[in-house]
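Dear U.,

For the methods section draft, I wanted the exact inputs and outputs in one place so we can describe them consistently. I've listed the two proteins in the order they'll appear in the manuscript figures. Please don't edit the token lines directly; just add comments below if something needs changing.

First protein:
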Amino acid sequence: MFTVKNEAGSLADAIAILGKHGYNMKVIRSRPSKNENWQYYFYTEVEGNIDTEEGNKMLKDLEKECNMIKVIGTYIEDMKI
């Protein structure tokens, strides 16, 4: 979950960071903030393990771009055998 500045290109910049680090965004949902007009929370599901060196780099890059970032949880994808 993250928020970005209310400026042109801010969301695109945050999403680009995911791809730059090799992560695939499967879902994105927006919800309005109750505290500020025109501020939205973005909930994403991202494919890949964030408990790696690359995952830590991605989160640090997102922290620079986003006003707020929070990892709500992780799960193992259901693998069909």
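Second protein (the one for the lower panel):
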Amino acid sequence: MKLHWQILIALALAVIVGSLTTSINAGFGFNLIPIFEFFGALFLNALKMIIVPLIVSSIIVGIASIEQDGSFARMGGKTLLYYVATSAIAITIGLVMVMIFQPGLIDGMPAKEALGLHADTAAVTERVGDASTGDIAGIFLRMIPPNIIHAAAQGQMLGLIFFSLLFGYFIAQLKGEHNSTMRSFFEGMFEVMMKMTDLIMRFAPIGVFALVAKIVATSGIDVFIPLAKFFFVVLAALAAQMFIVMPILLKVIARVRPIKHFQAMSPALLTAFSTSSSSATLPVTLDCVQDRAGVSNKTSSFVLPLGATINMDGTALYECVAALFIAQAYGLELGFVQQFTVVILALMTSIGVAGIPAASLVAITIILAAMGLPLEGIGLILAVDRVLDMCRTAVNVFSDSCGAVIIARSEGEQTRLVS
């Protein structure tokens, strides 16, 4: 059975078992949730274990193989243009959806009192208050870490990517024996990491089952009822980005059949959905884009690690919708200038806080502060944030993969998905 079918079956079983966990715990006298946590953490740790060596080897091999004729700068320009454009489209979709459906209003009245707060607001404030809000200067400072080993250990991907880009570029400047030795070493390292990825993915169904079963068991279904309107507005906006905007870009610009691309990326999308982490999914994304979609290592090793760090279409969209929803729930009337401010802040913070835990919450606090709203508004969305995080991560990963294919085709590559 193909891997994506195994993962889909695991997802379905996880929902069933997770919803029955309370009954099973009571009937058999033991708690299943710690078991789910153990196997879920084991799978996530295995994926995270290979992120740093995979990113380093992949980028270095890809950049070292780029001809030094201006193609590096050209590819970088295309990549950044794609990231900014798709994120802007996603935010605009979120803005339009909120303005049309107004999830923050119930019977025309602000929903704050009706919804109440679903979390300890003091804990929420503490959780996001100590994190760096990632201003523009901070982004550039994180690009050049004082200690690359420490940056790798702390998961500061932006600095690691920048170092790897420089390292690969200067390997290409070497002549003769040193060039071939360095390239051979990192090519071998990259091949080893891809084989390790294949091994870890054999256990993906078990990991996915454990992760999703725990979420269903701990969250339950009742938490979605008061926030159903907000929940479905976010889902609809994410679906529009993933199933309308991205396929159009694939078809029109890359001349690629969208359905084929969905099929090629299915293991990565399901892994992203279950792990809620673009970085943890990166090994699987690289494997799918190269082996299943046929994009060269030269392109994918540049576009995908960078995208997993700064290209956050789903996150940017969610930040915009969540901030506007909270504003509506508090009865704040937003004019054009305020809406435009939200759009710009969502675009910038989706990049600026990409490497920070609870990134979306931190970004939303920046937007709320700019709008003059209290941080306790975050408590309105926490009940459904975890499930929506799974959905927006899948959108993030899919956008990265589409970017790799589009840029590969613009560079003259013949992928396996050409229509």
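Candidate sentences for the figure legend, describing the second protein: Residues 117-121, 124-135 have pLDDT under 50 and may be disordered. The longest strand covers residues 105-106.

Thanks,
Y.
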